[in-house]
Specification:
heterodimer; A: mainly alpha; Helicase, Ruva Protein, domain 3; 2 domains; 6 helices; B: 19 helices; about 60% helix; about 10% strand
């Protein structure tokens, strides 16, 4: 039995290996001859989601659907579409989910502008706080003995970056 | 028997955690010294019993005890010993026990090394640690018991997910948890300070070493995960803005902000209330990360154990911890008094810029991660938020951050002169602009992004080097004097300089590998050659091998440079037994300045194979930079001012202490 083990395992291995998608990303023979056009195709591919994968762009995925979409992108580019038109073409057929860069609309205003808004509000608040006249700082008005005690407790806190 | 011992030990640990959350707290309220001191003992006890439970689980895995359900589901007798051990945390139940182990370790450490913390505060910190420990031990005991038995006992186990049978991923969770859970201590310090109703400058000083330790481990944990993704997922990427990656990145961002605001809290007695909020948020985001990963709310390539019911339990822990802490904060924080005054342009101001940008960056990542879920839950359709969003929002925040990072060490406290600082840095400014200009000249496609990235990297490294040079008065004082100053430099200064320069190293790696990657995808037959970035790669063929618990198709590639053979690379496609799961093992030759990366694809035609060849310039710098950041943190941690085990003080409050020599 033992001497059959290796051939059986290898046969099993080959049978299993065949249909399983391998290392992801673009396959041989897919790339366009025109290097400039192919570069554009890659950039577009990175912005489109492989709909059947988990968090992969069509450029990263080896799924058949991703391959079909890559071919579609290249077909549209060869036909003379600009990048925006190609993305619009795919978007029209597959919906918002295919766009890794979500569209800017009323649903996504918070997503796109929320962080910038938070930053502005925080900056405005800070400037207001720093410009507001305040009474003399308590930290600077420690009695010499208290300051000496605090310094002794904290060690040489002055020279550290 | 070991399973029962482990189960029992977990129950004992939970009871001790209950005591730990009650007694020291009561002692602190009543100013009862003995009750407060009990906290440290109980914390040590909790750690010992969780360690016994963890040891029992490890024993069950190492001895392949297939009467334990968890071992059956996640181990196999033919697995190498290393992966039998790491399999302990390669599954949900075991990883939660590891979480509890590290949590109880940190709790015990507060008892062991917290001798210089005021006893009342220390007791409260230990009590809060006890509460968190109790919540998670209850979670393990009630929903995720790793010690459940199976009957009848199966002859062998189902094996560990092969993707986890890898050194990188084996040690990724423990490091990540050291970071995540480490921030529980800063959280406990924040809550304890709110309970006491007062924060003094010493608070910042006590918090800093814990924040530094947690941050360093989190940095290393994230880097290890990213490195694993790079060599294992097989397409040369290192960061995918995947929800699970984001889950670990958010606490890192806010934790970095905390690290810096705590400096201001200590040195200048300012930003105290804000530091407390950051400490709460950092641990909240760590818990959120745990929830996102453990609940299966997000689908992701990294999630290997998911269960919505457990998610509900964690969500409850999350709601009570975060909600409770924030409500408490809103109630008590207004009473905290602000301290030292400063002008917008000052060291404080620069550190606030860091805080602001780091926090907003974390907010961006949080929005991007949760937005698809929220839009879906509201019935507004399905949207995707992917790398283009994160790159568009994240880079504009990081660029000013790195600019500020370079200049901040040249700004004095309270009030600074920006023009003067820039004037001191004029050499570095010139080098930075020059480097960016050269990149614009060299690169046509991504010239703006490339120039920005390389410029920022040069700036960060250059400004850090210049800071070091001016600190030791290099070339401005006799060389011996510079040497003496170098030796006398505080370790925390070394740590800062190293970590800041390391950020530049990481940026250089990310930029160069994204912009100047070379990729060749083609079918190669034995004897074929391909030229990649100065290397000639010859394909010698494929052989099938059986190694341990997997079968592999192994390619052989000889790499030569200028006619001389420099390496033989053997990328593999493996099929792991018994699950028959395929994995791809890229073969990588690194020169520390670039990687040659080969992936073997599927057979193609007669004897041919699809092959992917990548040349990734500076990609190792991403992880070298992260390791340097970790080292920076560790060096800083050994500074005598940070030493957590600093000379013990008697229980009397804060007698003056002579400065050490």
């Amino acid at each position: 039995m033992r001497r059959y083990a290796a051939p059986i395992l290898l046969a099993l291995f080959l049978a299993l290996a065949a249909p399983i998608p391998s290392a992801p990303a673009i396959g041989p023979g897919e790339a366009l001859k025109d290097a400039k056009l192919e570069d554009r195709a890659r950039d577009i591919g990175r912005q489109l989601r492989c709909l059947v994968c988990q968090n992969q762009s069509i450029d990263d995925s080896d799924a058949p659907l991703a391959r079909d979409l890559r071919r579609l992108v290249r077909k549209r580019l060869t036909a003379g579409d600009d990048d925006r038109q190609v993305i619009a073409y795919i978007h029209a057929r597959y919906g918002d989910f295919v766009l890794l860069r979500p569209p800017v609309d009323e649903r996504t205003w918070l997503l796109w502008f929320g962080p910038a808004l938070a930053l502005l509000v925080a900056l405005a608040f800070l400037l207001w706080r720093l410009r507001r006249p305040r009474p003399a700082a308590p930290a600077d008005s420690l009695s010499p003995e208290a300051a000496a005690r605090a310094d002794a407790l904290l060690g040489d806190r002055g020279d550290e970056p | 028997m070991s399973a029962e011992i482990g189960h029992f030990a977990l129950i004992v640990a939970a009871v001790l955690a209950l005591g730990q959350s009650v007694f020291p707290m009561a002692g602190a309220v009543r100013r009862h010294g003995a009750l407060m001191a009990l906290g440290g003992t109980l914390a040590t006890g909790q750690f010992v019993f969780v360690a016994i439970a963890f040891g029992a689980l490890t024993w069950a895995f190492v001895t392949s005890d297939f009467s334990v359900a968890n071992v059956v589901q996640n181990s196999h007798s033919a697995k190498p010993l290393l992966y039998k051990i790491t399999g302990v945390w390669g599954n949900h139940e075991g990883s939660m026990v590891l979480w509890c182990l590290i949590l109880s370790l940190f709790g015990a450490c507060v008892g062991w090394f917290g001798g210089n913390v005021a006893p009342g505060l220390r007791a409260r910190v230990i009590a809060v640690q006890g509460m968190i420990g109790l919540a998670f031990l209850a979670f393990v005991l009630l929903t995720s018991n790793p010690f459940d038995r199976v009957n009848p006992m199966p002859p062998d186990g189902r094996g560990l997910n092969p993707i986890l049978q890898d050194p990188g991923l084996a040690f990724h969770p423990p490091l990540l948890y050291l970071g995540y859970v480490g921030f529980s201590v800063t959280f406990a310090f924040a809550v304890a300070a709110l309970l006491e109703g007062g924060v003094d400058a010493a608070w910042g000083r006590w918090v800093r070493p814990w924040a530094l330790a947690a941050w360093s481990f989190l940095t290393l944990g994230i880097a290890l995960g990213s490195w694993w993704a790079y060599y294992e997922l097989g397409w040369g990427g290192f960061w995918f803005w995947d929800p699970v990656e984001n889950a670990s990145f958010m606490p890192w961002l806010v934790g970095t902000a905390l690290l810096h605001s705590a400096i201001v809290a200590e040195k200048r007695d300012a930003l105290k209330s804000w530091s407390i909020l950051l400490a709460i948020l950092t641990f909240s985001l760590s818990l959120l990360g745990t929830f996102l990963v453990r609940s299966g709310v997000l689908t992701s390539v990294h999630t290997f154990a998911t269960d919505p019911e457990r998610g509900l339990f964690i969500l409850a822990i999350l709601a009570v911890t975060i909600g409770g802490a924030l409500v408490f904060y809103a109630w008590r924080a207004p009473a905290l008094k602000g301290g030292g005054l400063f002008r917008p342009v000052s060291r404080e101001g620069a550190l606030i810029v860091n805080n602001l940008l780091m926090t907003v960056a974390a907010l961006t990542v949080l929005f991007g991660t949760l937005y698809p879920l929220i839009v879906d839950a509201l019935g507004l359709g399905k949207i995707s938020v992917g790398p283009p969003y994160f790159n568009a929002t994240f880079v504009p925040l990081m660029a000013p951050l790195i600019l500020a990072m370079g200049i901040a060490p040249f700004l004095p406290w309270k009030r600074a002169d920006l023009a003067g600082a820039l004037d001191r840095l004029k050499l570095i400014v010139a080098v930075t602009i020059g480097a960016a200009a050269v990149v614009v000249f060299l690169e046509d496609r991504y010239s703006f992004a490339a120039a920005l990235g390389i410029g920022l990297a040069v700036w960060a490294i250059g400004a850090s080097a210049f800071e070091l040079a001016s600190r030791v008065r290099l070339f401005r004082a006799p060389f011996g004097e510079s040497l003496r100053r170098t030796a006398a430099m505080p370790r925390s200064a070394w740590g800062m300089t190293l970590a800041h320069a390391a950020a530049g190293v990481v940026v250089a790696g990310i930029t160069a590998s994204s912009v100047w990657q070379t990729e060749i995808v083609r079918v190669m037959e034995p004897g074929d050659r391909a030229d990649v970035a100065g290397y000639t790669v010859a394909f010698a063929g494929v052989q099938e091998v059986r190694v341990g618990n997997y079968l592999a198709r192994r390619g052989r590639f000889t790499v030569s440079e200028g006619g001389a053979a420099v390496a033989t690379l053997s990328p593999e496609k493996r099929i792991y037994l018994p699950q028959r799961t395929p994995t791809t093992e890229a073969a990588i030759r690194t020169t520390w300045f670039a990687d040659l990366y080969i992936v073997l694809g599927d057979p193609h035609g007669e004897g041919g194979h699809a092959v992917r060849l990548y040349h990734n310039p500076l990609v190792p710098w991403i992880w070298i930079g992260a390791v340097l950041m970790f080292l920076g943190g560790m060096i800083s941690l050994t500074d005598r001012r940070h030493r957590v085990g600093a000379p013990r003080r008697s229980v009397r409050p804060a007698p003056p202490q002579p400065a050490e020599a």
